[in-house]
């Protein structure tokens, strides 16, 4: 088990703003350099913090388990999964305790954009600042789908689950195939650097304990 506490500001490139900047993530950035990433107990892990305020502590647990605690942060992402994105059926379980802004999502990142299959979130729905791409039904719930353009040709694909949950299984192929059918230009599989079940907090305090398989 290893633990990291933020003491480093990641190199970032500023990009656009959302329609509701007071509720959106404080750091609207391309996440070029994670604070830490690697392999732990057979899983890839990633931890990134923008370093703008507060503290974040990330801890790897056994197998696919991780925990994260944050206090008054700007923005961070952390989680476990795989170093390559594939159309996996991804199971997760655990809890997130946060009264403010957070995301719990199957998340991929690349230099061209990000993909969020959002299973639980706090006070801000990211599709409120995006272009609607309809909806799809998968894994027991309707998902609102949208495209968010952060500027500088940096795009985010979002699937926002209507029945929020912190445990379940995500059939990622359903989402990735739908994105392509709607002409959403960022391909989540060909260019993604990693695929994780991510906890993200922004402008908030909280804790999470999640196990991925």
UniProtKB/TrEMBL annotation:
Record EC number: 3.2.1.8
Keywords: Carbohydrate metabolism, Glycosidase, Hydrolase, Polysaccharide degradation, Signal, Xylan degradation
Signal peptide span: 1-19
GO molecular function list: endo-1,4-beta-xylanase activity
The protein's annotated pathway: Glycan degradation; xylan degradation
Residue numbers annotated as active site: 114, 200
SUPFAM superfamilies: Concanavalin A-like lectins/glucanases (SSF49899)
InterPro entries documented for this protein: ConA-like_dom_sf, GH11/12, GH11_AS_2, GH11_dom, Glyco_hydro_11
Domain (GH11): residue spans on this chain: 31-213
One GO-annotated biological process of the protein: xylan catabolic process
Top-rank taxon, per record: Eukaryota
Pfam families linked to this entry: Glyco_hydro_11
Catalytic activity: Endohydrolysis of (1->4)-beta-D-xylosidic linkages in xylans
Main enzyme class: hydrolase
Family note: Belongs to the glycosyl hydrolase 11 (cellulase G) family.
Name of this chain's protein: endo-1,4-beta-xylanase
